[in-house]
Amino acid sequence: MVDFPGGPQAFEICAKFCYGMTVTLNAYNVVAARCAAEYLQMTEDADRSNLIFKIEVFLNSSIFRSWKDSIIVLQTTKTLLPWSENLKIVGRCIDSIASKTSVDPANITWSYTYKRKLLVPDKIVDDSMKSREKIESVPKDWWVEDICELETDHYKRVMTVVKSKGRMDGAVICEALKTYTVRWLPGSVDALVSVVNSWRNKLLVETIVSLLPSDQGVGCSCSFLLKLLKIAILVGVDDSAKEDLVNRISLKLHEASVKDLLIPASSPQTILYDVEMVQSIVNRYMMHEKCSQNLNVEKNEKGCTDFVLGHGLLLNVGKLVDGYLEEIARDPNLSLASFVDMSRSIPEFARPVHDGLYKAIDMYLKEHPSLTKAERKKICGLMDVKKLTTDASMHAAQNERLPLRVVVQLLFFEQVRAAAGVQSLNTNPRHTSYSTTYTEEEWEKTAAEDCVSVKKQMSEIKIKEDGFQTTGKLSKKSSKNSKSGMQLLPSRSRRIFDKLWLVGKGQVENRSSETSGSLQSPASMVPGDTCPMDIFLEFPDSTYRCRSYRMP
Length: 552
What we know:
Elements: H1 7-18, H2 30-39, H3 51-61, H4 67-76, H5 83-86, H6 89-101, H7 130-137, H8 152-165, H9 170-184, H10 189-193, H11 198-210, H12 222-235, H13 239-251, H14 258-261, H15 275-297, H16 301-328, H17 336-343, H18 355-367, H19 373-380, H20 390-397, H21 404-425, H22 440-459, H23 476-486, H24 491-505, H25 512-518, E1 535-538, E2 543-546
Antiparallel strand pairs: 1-2
Helix pairs in contact: 1-2, 2-3, 4-6, 6-8, 11-12, 12-13, 13-15, 15-16, 16-18, 20-21
């Protein structure tokens, strides 16, 4: 009989039962015996206490009460379809497994597979501590490794019932999905996209996505979701599954790392990473944050706390985007428009310091040396020199890749910053606001005033006539002091200073007494005030010192 369910072994069990011989049933052969008995119609109508009745008693009293036997029986039903499905053995196994996952860990008495180390105390102090120690020794996700042995279809049905009961925490469900993904998905890209396994991998990823907790804001980590998205792109899952993952990631973007966001671009794109998808995630995150902040503003004190917390998360996203920009800037095929759009995807208040953005811009300029002057100006326009730290400003001032206009702005605002520091120490009420955060209008007004002041001070500098020889060189003493001071300037900063000097030179008279009083050599400084520096400008009102800085 070719179509006999269970084959010769199942037929042998039925034959032995009919002749009154002892039959041994276990989790591995009980389903085959039950299907064979149904095929032979060994019901109560034919004889009392027939084989079907005895197998049903064995299933209900032993198999479905055992955790591991229920899993084994469910695995054996696959080769006996559709008999096992019609006899409802599959459904009863799934219900048995799902109900046991919801049992309080304190009441678990059966064995289970858990390879991670349990935190069990070395000694038991007294009987009153036993129950507490038992609860601690059985984790909430004790069941996830055992059901990883199920086929994808059975696993999906079990997890669907577990979720429908509503008793399982979302984090535990995500841990189960993560464990199953690691168990069945291959670790190499070649194995993922191979012709033999591509269909199975695609089905597995779509199943995992469909089983994610309904509450998108909890449970699975952003890192796991991003890894799942990368695999989904490789195996070519449906757009709906990818869209679901993107929505979930956008809610937890502040938890991601730069490495997680490096999603490989799919063909026919020539760039290394899928910048467009990451920008879509960032844009959705900003939309969620805007909506949540609008709701929190209308609330009471709790809303205020949530607003401050949301602002802190935005700062994390700002740092994340700057780090991502630095990584994608290494791609020689990345267009300037993509870089600029990605940079502008976050608001200004999410990026209070522009050091990270400067590093990304510098990396892009380094990897794209063929940019035109207009393109360099455009990309550097993303950066606000007023928001650079002192160290980053010093590195930028010596950066040959930056446009001259940006370097001049850096030097000017560093002078303004130094002047503000000196004047704040003198408790001058007019300039104490320099130590606080300026608005854009205040900065522009301050910059204009200080620019006029600097020009006025330079116009008062007089150059001594006899300090120049007929060859155009300074006198011996002046040359010595000038040389020692100018050697402290880096090459590009020295050229910029020379240009500023020539501008002031055309507007002043030659007066040796004022010249000797306005410019001093660093060698004439008090030893305690000297320091290794690249620029040393001294004006009547303030002293400007800039330390050398090299980016790591």
